[in-house]
Amino acid sequence: MKRYGDCEVVRFGEGDKGGYSAVQLIETSLISAHFADASSNGYIDIFSCKYYRPEDAFTFSKNFFEAKYARYSHLLRV
């Protein structure tokens, strides 16, 4: 995946809804992420018109964010 432009990261929301959101455009679509402060949960969405192995993206994300628990689901669009 090759990024296009800079990653945009914003912090917003109050109370249990506060946290960070990020968007990175990639040549084949985009990656978005949302992180909730109150729960310490993170949600990452990788949308790509080019095939990638979801297991690889899952393993990379889990290791990068040092997740104690993680799960994933994927939808293959044809």
Structural account:
This protein is mainly beta and 78 residues long. It is built from one helix and four strands. Strand 3 (29-36) and strand 4 (41-48) form a beta hairpin.
Mean pLDDT: 93
Structural class: mainly beta
Number of helices: 1
**Given the C-alpha coordinates, what overall shape results?**
globular
Question: What kind of oligomer do you see?
Answer: single chain
Secondary structure elements and their pairing?
Layout: E1 8-12, E2 19-26, E3 29-36, E4 41-48, H1 54-64
Antiparallel strand pairs: 1-2, 2-3, 3-4
Summarize the structure.
This protein has 78 residues and is mainly beta. The chain is built from 1 helix and 4 strands.
Task: Please give a handful of descriptors for the protein shown.
14% helix; 1 helix; 78 residues
